[in-house]
Amino acid sequence: MLPVDGRSLSLAKKILSEGRLVAFPTETVYGLGADAFNDSAVSLIYRTKGRPSDNPLIVHLHKDYDISRLVDGIPDYARALSAAFLPGPLTMVYKSRGAVCPAVSCGLDTLAVRIPSHPCAQAFLKYVDIPVAAPSANISKHVSPVTAGHVYDDFKGKIELILDGGKCSGGIESTVLDCTGKVPCVLRSGLVTRDMIAQVAGECDEYIMKDGERVRSPGMKYKHYSPRCKTALFAYADRMQALRLYRECDCRGERAYIMCDRQTAADMGDARILDLGGDEREVAANLYDRLREGERVADMIIAVAPLKQDGVMVGVMNRLTKACG
Ligand code: AMP
Ligand code: MG
Description:
With 325 residues, the chain is α/β, with parallel strands linked by helices. It contains ten helices and 16 strands. Helix 1 (6-17) packs across helix 4 and helix 9 runs parallel beside helix 10. The structure holds adenosine monophosphate (AMP) and magnesium ion (MG). Adenosine monophosphate binds next to strand 7 and strand 11.
């Protein structure tokens, strides 16, 4: 684990050029990066994470990288969205030019690209000056990492270099937006919300998988974000049931924690709380950190969904349901 400076960046460049992996901070979660032009380096990502081989990776670029080297057919609405939100937590899926190795997109004819805003991510990407393929830097299915320590905890000595940029401010993965159609379509919700996109692009769809359809964002079909302890999830309206379960656990000698936002915590008396914070951005920023804290201290995490379910909370609820549902 090293802070981002001249020495660590030059080491990062050397490691990537030799086909190995570097973990780096972004404004959403930590990424596990490899040279997107190097086949064996990209397959090392899948092996190291235990990631299913049909779940494609996002390519990370510095803000001055010419993306027309990698993708084709960028629609006008995507240019407007790029001007409005990039660098930032928005991943855009375009038709691929086939320049990066096929394993990045798992053989799809599209490529997901992202320009992160975190200054350390930009410094790293600028220094190495190649497209860096990177999923979140956690063991597949485990909770995503929002500190360098989380990355270390998952991989121990297996990652040669973790660039330490402190705690990620965003906290949930980027919004994934399909930009291959006439209208942009949210494949995974995140901090750039559907409303924010619609305000710039005029309209925005949201992908909901229909029965029997081939999934458009393969990552969606997998179990994700699971803490290594028992979990339960209650709707806000059922929060007193959550408290009842908490008391039952206490009686059985099981150490339960209630994970909820600050408004809900006020109704939970003296129960042990994993506090997600006061507003939607705070809740997103704290979610993975509290899930990882929970698996350390609790036999069971009893999550209560926030009352508000729009905007950024759409993305939070998507993760919370997969983690604790
Ligand atoms: P992760 O990097 O672990 O946050 O996951 C990346 C997400 O982006 C997954 O949900 C992938 O399915 C999605 N993704 C990556 N590339 C593509 C692509 N070419 N088309 C659609 N979704 C993609
Ligand atoms: Mg991930």
